[in-house]
């Protein structure tokens, strides 16, 4: 019988950037992903399209699958010869029951590896501006489960010894917070001992309540703070006021919907997250092949006859070169043609295919490209524009007026991802601060997805546009954007968003 392998992976404390490189690598090659409530769902985007994804989360006593059921699931999938990524929040061996799962795998003769993760016991305080040790405050630190059964007569925790530790981190202890404070006070801790409770640490949803052993229970109740949270006890909590770096980010706590395709969203998402935002990827366009590649293939067959090759998007570049190479041709086929591009990202991608860009306008839209192009003599020149099936006609029209023989061929088309509409409505209902639009298509499609409810659902939501063409589309639809990038690029859009919220 075939034996697979199980990787017990620590997914870290919540910030998707805090998973290890090995953890990412294993997720990307696994056949099956078995994941918990506390494992960031963004990690699923790393998985293969054909990977099986199984949620086994436990939240507030509601268990999707019992621990015994999870153990059996890992065994069964491995016995099918599958590579299984068992994704657990924090570190798998720190109150994560990873040791129990490993024992079961050993009992069934199934190979396994442990990929350690960053524990929330250290990371959550760090993101709250609290170092768990500090030379002037304490040199001792311990981690304790706060999940003990309150009905037990005798605690397994040595509270007398614990009360002598400088910094104590309690995990999964929110329900037992009163009992934790009571035990520490009874065994020698002062009422004035500082306490911080950090909920959803390391994420843009992070909330922190600070008090002391005498008043933290009342403060947490007043703030209505619930799990998941870390309870940190010790003098180091006083450093938060000075070292609170994460919550000081200009976009901290802002929920931003990114409407680009998933394949193109990464740069925008990463940049916004760097400034503290919580990004929700809801693509409002999906890139699909055109109804036929015949016009593009026909143009590629005679590519050596063109004087100019003009690219208006990254998608057009990718499809063009994929078809070019598929025809047995390479960069040498473009030796005769000059190449023009709209935008730095498009130009950079062309260069990665080994082709120099002859013309890149200062203004990244059709009008800017036209202004630069029309300084050249296009009389009798043969021009190829591989682009989206539906796009603005100003570029080919003006080039024809200048005497060029322009061929526009569809390299791809954009369609409405209707399956995202329900998720978009759900996120808007929960509260969204801002929506980004990187093209007229993203704007038109989002409004189609919302239909007659658009006015109500977008009330109070800030809209950010990458440039004047996209802004005009929004205005014509009755939704003028509050933010427009001065430079029509992703970095330009991010800069405009940050400046808006800082003001």
Give the helix/strand layout.
Blueprint: E1 5-10, H1 21-29, E2 32-35, E3 52-55, E4 58-59, E5 62-63, H2 67-79, E6 83-88, H3 98-107, E7 112-115, H4 120-127, E8 141-145, H5 159-162, E9 167-171, H6 177-186, E10 194-199, E11 207-212, H7 216-223, E12 229-233, H8 240-243, E13 255-258, H9 262-274, E14 278-281, E15 286-288, H10 294-301, E16 308-311, H11 314-326, E17 338-341, H12 344-352, H13 366-373, E18 382-388, H14 394-401, E19 405-415, H15 421-430, E20 434-437, H16 440-450, H17 454-457, E21 462-465, H18 468-476, E22 483-484, H19 490-502
Parallel strand pairs: 1-6, 1-7, 2-3, 2-6, 8-9, 13-14, 13-20, 16-17, 16-18, 18-19, 20-21, 21-22
Antiparallel strand pairs: 4-5, 9-12, 10-11, 10-12, 15-19
Protein name: uroporphyrinogen-III C-methyltransferase
Domain Tetrapyrrole methylase: 5-216
Domain Tetrapyrrole biosynthesis uroporphyrinogen III synthase: 267-494
Structural overview:
One of its GO terms (molecular function) is uroporphyrin-III C-methyltransferase activity. This protein is of the alpha/beta class and 503 residues long. The protein has four domains: 5-118, Tetrapyrrole methylase, N-terminal domain (Cobalt-precorrin-4 Transmethylase, domain 1, 3-Layer(aba) Sandwich), CATH 3.40.1010; 122-248, Tetrapyrrole methylase, C-terminal domain (Methyltransferase, Cobalt-precorrin-4 Transmethylase, Domain 2, 2-Layer Sandwich); 255-285 and 417-502, Rossmann fold, CATH 3.40.50; 291-411, 3-Layer(aba) Sandwich (Rossmann fold). 34% of the residues lie in helices and 20% in strands. It is built from 19 helices and 22 strands. The strands form five sheets. It has a five-stranded parallel sheet, with helices on both faces. A five-stranded mixed sheet has the order 8-9-12-10-11, with helices on both faces. The chain has a five-stranded parallel sheet with strand order 14-13-20-21-22. Helix 2 (67-79) crosses helix 3 and helix 16 runs parallel beside helix 18 (468-476). The longest helix has 13 residues, at 67-79. It is elongated and about 90 Å long.
């Amino acid at each position: 019988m075939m034996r697979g392998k199980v990787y017990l992976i620590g997914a870290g404390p919540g910030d998707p950037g805090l998973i290890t490189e090995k953890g990412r690598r294993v997720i990307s090659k696994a056949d099956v992903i078995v994941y918990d409530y506390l494992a960031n769902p963004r990690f699923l985007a790393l998985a293969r399209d054909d990977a099986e994804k199984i949620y086994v989360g436990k939240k507030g006593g509601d268990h999707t699958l019992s621990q015994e059921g999870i153990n059996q699931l890992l065994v069964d999938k491995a016995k099918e010869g599958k590579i299984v990524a068992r994704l657990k929040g924090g570190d798998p061996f720190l109150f994560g029951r990873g040791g129990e799962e490993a024992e079961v795998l050993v009992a069934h003769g199934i190979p396994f590896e442990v990929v350690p993760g960053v524990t929330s016991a250290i990371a959550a305080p760090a993101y709250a501006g609290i170092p768990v040790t500090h030379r002037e405050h304490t040199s001792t630190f311990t981690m304790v489960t706060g999940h003990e059964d309150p009905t037990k007569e005798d605690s397994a925790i040595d509270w007398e010894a614990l009360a002598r530790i400088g910094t104590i981190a309690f995990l999964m202890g929110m329900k037992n917070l009163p009992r934790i404070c009571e035990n520490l006070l009874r065994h020698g801790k002062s009422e004035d001992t500082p306490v911080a409770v950090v909920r959803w640490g390391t994420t843009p949803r992070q909330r922190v309540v600070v008090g002391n052993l005498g008043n933290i229970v009342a403060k947490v109740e007043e703030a209505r703070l619930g799990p998941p949270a870390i309870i940190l006890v010790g003098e180091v909590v006083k450093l938060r006021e000075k070292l609170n770096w994460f919550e000081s980010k200009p976009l901290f706590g802002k929920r931003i919907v990114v409407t680009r395709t998933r394949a193109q969203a990464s740069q925008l998402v990463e940049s916004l997250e760097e400034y503290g935002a919580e990004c929700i990827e809801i693509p409002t366009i999906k890139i699909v092949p055109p109804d036929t590649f015949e016009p593009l293939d026909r143009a590629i067959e005679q590519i050596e006859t063109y004087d100019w090759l003009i690219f208006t998007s990254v998608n057009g570049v990718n499809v063009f070169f994929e078809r070019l190479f598929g025809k047995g041709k390479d960069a040498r086929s473009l030796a005769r043609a000059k190449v023009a591009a709209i935008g730095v990202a498009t130009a950079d991608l062309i260069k990665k295919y080994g082709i120099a860009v002859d013309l890149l306008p200062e203004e990244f839209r059709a009008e800017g490209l036209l202004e630069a192009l029309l300084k050249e003599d296009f009389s009798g020149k043969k021009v190829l524009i591989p682009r989206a099936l539906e796009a603005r006609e100003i570029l080919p029209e003006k080039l024809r007026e200048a005497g060029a023989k322009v061929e526009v061929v569809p390299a791809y088309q954009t369609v409405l991802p209707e399956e995202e509409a329900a998720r978009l409505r759900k996120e808007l209902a929960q509260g969204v601060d801002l929506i980004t639009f990187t093209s007229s298509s993203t704007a038109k499609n989002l409004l189609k997805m919302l239909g007659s409810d658009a006015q109500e659902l977008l009330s109070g939501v800030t809209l950010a546009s990458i440039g004047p063409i996209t802004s005009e589309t929004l205005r014509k639809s009755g939704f003028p954007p509050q933010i427009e990038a001065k430079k029509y690029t992703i970095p330009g859009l991010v800069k405009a968003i940050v400046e808006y919220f800082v003001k």
